[in-house]
Amino acid sequence: MAALLAAALVASCEPTSDAAPVSTRNPATAADVSVERVVLQAYRAIGDRHLNEPDFRKMAQETYKGFASADPTLSLQAGDRAFTLVRDGHQVIARPTPGDPTDGRAWGGMLAELFAASIDASPVLQQAERGTLIKGAMAATTKQLDKNSRYADPDEAKDNRFQRDGGGGIGITVERTDDKKIVIRAVQDGSPAFKGGVQPGDQIVAVDGDSMIEKTLGDVVHKLRGSVGQPVTLTVLRGEGHEIAIEMRRSRIIPTTVTYERVGNTALIHLTGFNSATTDQLTRALDRARHELGRDLQGIILDMRSNRGGLLDQAQSVAEVFIGDGVIFSTQGRHPDSQRTYRSGSRKTAELPVVVLVNGNSASAAEIVAAALQDRGRAAVVGTTSYGKGTVQTVIRLPNEGELILTWSRLVAPSGYSWNEQGVMPNICTAKVGDIAALAPASVDSNKALLQRWHAERNPSHDEVANLRKICPPGEESPQRDVDIAARLLKDPALYAHAVRTGSIDQASAPQ
Asked: Is 165 known to be catalytic?
């Protein structure tokens, strides 16, 4: 599940939604960066920013195991006063343990010394790639934190940054078929590929004359990306064996996360993620719907099913499109900067009725928007209970150009509940609707008490969460019935208003 990046400088944080800033560094020596430097910086960040106060004594032992896993002759003896490195039964070095188990800088410094001594003593570690050692150490470290904190190696981190903020590319989405062909699935409007005549269904056979046959999807994507303005020649196979070479220049591409289609007199807007261009794309989609439908536009269906989230600041600005004033969400964490209330400052909002679609794979930023619109009485939510990722991650750029994605705050809805693990419960659970045409206020009312109970929870136990999620079990599908129910609500203003009221809070008692 994707992290919700705090991003004011971004997200869920290359910076973080006005949360913690992203670290920067000189990339010139990234390939040669030592594991000691990476882990030292990571430990400092964990000590300063993680949601929970860490126990570095236990973490350091696991980090070392991950780092030295390739050489079974190495072991670390963790005593009360010292950590002792042993190889083949002989002591190599001993270092006193820091007195404070929460001091990340001190524990990271001690580990750095142990790592350096281990490499000096071990031919196996001397031969190992630095990236492998770093990955082993960092993976073991993040396992001691929480399920949403993780390490991204430099290649993955580079792709993450592209997905968040864009970069030099040609504007296509590619996929690898079962027979190992690389096929273009979509072409972004206005992109170099679009202008060059690239079509969905084209098979990529070469880039700049280099064959892409049998290459991995990652190899092809890496070859297609590059500096803005740099020329690239894409050779595709179209139809029955007809090869076409298309020359173009890369431009700054931000992946498309918003698509619009007209369904009768409603605007069905698919929102697949939250990157730096999402709110602008959403605004353009709404403008297009207004232009096409005019006064006949009955409302908006915002489809966020299987939307795994993205940037925190974009979740805020997307919600502001529909909420004119007041609280959108709050964050609570250990670091002072993580304790914030996010309000809408928008004076121009979309006043049309809104139905939000969610499922069990709707997470993170998607849940922020769904919870805010539901709590504030701005939308009816339809589908299944969402994933339940109610935490924010900050992204720390590491010295090797990898990233530490670190959980640093909890999310709180306007009504005061946190949906972490619990999820956002829909106003109307699709599985409980029989005849859509017969949907009436009485059937909508049956959910009101359940939603009030849901929003009243503050610190539910694991068993309580499990029981709550059984009310409308999270699903992974995106059935047409969700859209049909949404359309039914938007065609009946009285029924829509009734459905919205079942999940909204009394604003007089909401956080202000």
From this structure: no
Query: What span, in angstroms and rounded, lies between the C-alpha atoms of 414 and 434?
Result: 31
The model's pTM: 0.83
**Alpha-carbon separation of residue 26 from 193, 337, 345, 396, 399 (angstroms):** 33, 26, 37, 14, 8
> How far apart are the C-alpha atoms of 265 and 490, rounded to whole Å?
9
What tokens were used for 115?
Answer: 């790592």
| DSSP codes, 169-228 | E--EEEEE-TTS-EEEEEE-TTSHHHHHT--TTPEEEEETTEE-TT--HHHHHHHH---T
At residue 154, what are phi and psi to the nearest 5 degrees? Answer: -55, -40
Instruction: Please write the tens of the pLDDT for every residue from 199-208.
Output: 999 999 999 9
Task: Please report, for the chain, the start and end positions of each structural domain, with discontinuous segments joined by +.
Answer: 53-144, 168-253, 258-503
Q: How far apart are CA 486 and CA 382, in angstroms?
A: 7
Distance CA 492, CA 324 (A): 24
Say what percent of the chain tops pLDDT 90.
75
Which residue in the list 149, 317, 364, 409 is annotated as catalytic?
364
The CATH number that domain 258-503 falls under is: 3.90.226.10
Active site residue: 375, 386, 409, 415, which one? 375
Are the C-beta atoms of residues 55 and 127 closer than 8 Å to each other? no
65 a catalytic residue = no
Residue 5: per-residue pLDDT: 56
Residues 284, 267: Cα–Cα separation, whole Å: 12
More confident residue, 447 or 394: 394
Catalytic residue flag (residue 103): no
Q: Indicate which residue of 12, 71, 303, 389 is catalytic.
A: 389
CA dihedral 394, 399, 400, 405 (to 10 degrees): -10
* pLDDT beyond 50 at 9: no
Same topology for domains 168-253 and 258-503, yes or no?
Answer: no
- The C-alpha atoms of residue 362 and residue 383 are separated, in whole angstroms, by 10
For tokens 């990340």, the residue is 104
Q: Are 38 and 402 in contact (CB under 8 A)?
A: yes
Architecture of domain 168-253: Roll (2.30)
